Amino acid sequence: MWCRGSERGNPYAHHLSGLHPIVDLNAMELLELEDSYAGGTDPRVQGEYLPELLPVRLREVAPLRVSQPDGVGFTLDGTLLSWQNWQLRLGFNYREGLVLHQVAFRDGGRLRPVAHRLSFAEMVVPWARIED
Asked: Are residues 42 and 79 in the same domain?
């Protein structure tokens, strides 16, 4: 369970320790709420993403402009992406995010398989800021 700091705040930024709801998912009703909080102080974690909700001002960066005056260097036909000698299918799912399928490299006239399926399921972002 989590506590949202404000109406527009990140709903997963502040974990509520020690509360465990027991829910009947067929009836969609709360059967019991276990409270095993042992006291003490939970670490204060900054988990907001919207600039107006952050306690510090973000740094200013110049805009990034990507220009390809001769057109793009890749083709996309549905989920099939071809770029230089590479060919792969793009996919996405709710648990893993980006998934690459049928990754292959064209070597001469032969399409050589490199990977059947690649995903980024275990990506971790370790820079949460702890406040005093």
From this structure: no
109 lies in some domain = yes
pLDDT, one tens digit per residue, over 16-40 is 778 889 999 999 999 999 988 776 6
**Range(s) of the domain holding residue 104:** 74-119
Please compute, for residue 36, the number of CA atoms within 13 A of its CA located in the half-sphere on the CB side. Answer: 5
Question: Nearest CA to 123 among 101, 97, 90?
Answer: 97
Instruction: Report the alpha-carbon distance of residue 89 to residue 116 in Å, rounded.
Output: 10
Same domain membership, residue 80 and residue 50: no
Distance CA 124, CA 72 (A): 31
